[in-house]
Amino acid sequence: MRAWTKFAIVTLLLLVTTTLEAQLHNNYTKEYYIGVNGGATLSTMRFSPTLKQTMKLGVNTGVTMRYIAEKYFGLQAEVNFQQRGWAEKVTLDNPNTYNRTLNYIEVPFLTHIFFNAGPTRIFVNLGPKICFLIGDSEVNNYGEPNESMGRGKAVENRVDYGVCGGLGFEFRSKIGTFGIDGRYYFGLGDIFNNSKSDPFEASANQVISANAYYLIPFKSKKR
After folding, report:
1. Is the distance from CB of 81 to CB of 64 less than 8 angstroms?
2. How would you classify the pairing of strands 53-54 and 29-48?
3. Which of 52, 71, 126, 160 is 20 to 30 A away from residue 201, measured at CA?
């Protein structure tokens, strides 16, 4: 996917997020929340040429901020630490193992659409996010590096970006809001360079995550 196409997709999602807020004008009580989240990730890479992989388990934790602007609509931003990466698939013909852990600080900007069912809310989150690689590590039982397979190859693009979406539900109580959600992240950037002389045409992140969170309301304003 060309760089300008990726940029256009992310820009479109940002425009949709801000436009939806401006166009809804129902009576509502504004809600403001801040809280913490934590959970697990399962990740692989979209390599071209492809590599045989298994899901790599990681952790996800951070801070959540939410603004409810309308009766069924809000905005949510987060600052998270997230582990991603990949692990080569072990076979009978190839008992060696290789796995790479990529540690990111990620900042999602999400449209939050919800439906009330008493104190419970069912919701959809959708939007872009930008991510910054802060470190990586690898376990290579092959011994020698092999950059054509990604083994020992340094990450060349430390900034990642893409789109994510997911579903969840939460319970609102007097002491705060408790919730869980699941998401899928589709990376639009490549961690390795992708010129004709490079070993990979594509090397993009894709992540499934499951999280639990706790939010505290700290301000409300009725319009």
Report:
1. no
2. unpaired
3. 126
Burial class (CB in 10 A: 0-12, 13-18, 19+), 49: exposed
| Rounded Cα distance, 66 and 110, in Å | 9
What is the identity of the amino acid at 151?
R
Residue-wise pLDDT tens digits, 104-137: 999 999 999 999 888 999 999 999 999 999 999 9
∠ CA 129-71-13, rounded to 5° = 25
Per DSSP, the chain holds a count of helices (H) and strands (E) of 1, 9
Yes or no: domain 3-222 corresponds to CATH 2.40.160.20: yes
SS3 24: coil
Strand-pair category, 29-48 with 202-222: antiparallel
The pLDDT tens digits of the residues spanning 1-20 come to 555 555 555 555 655 555 55
Compute how many other C-beta atoms are within 10 angstroms of the C-beta atom of residue 91.
9
DSSP secondary structure of 120-182: EEEEEEEEEEEEEEEEEEEEETT-S-BGGGTBTPPP---EEEEEEEEEEEEEEETTEEEEEEE
Q: Is the dihedral of CA 146, 148, 149, 154 positive or negative?
A: positive
The domain spans of the chain are 3-222
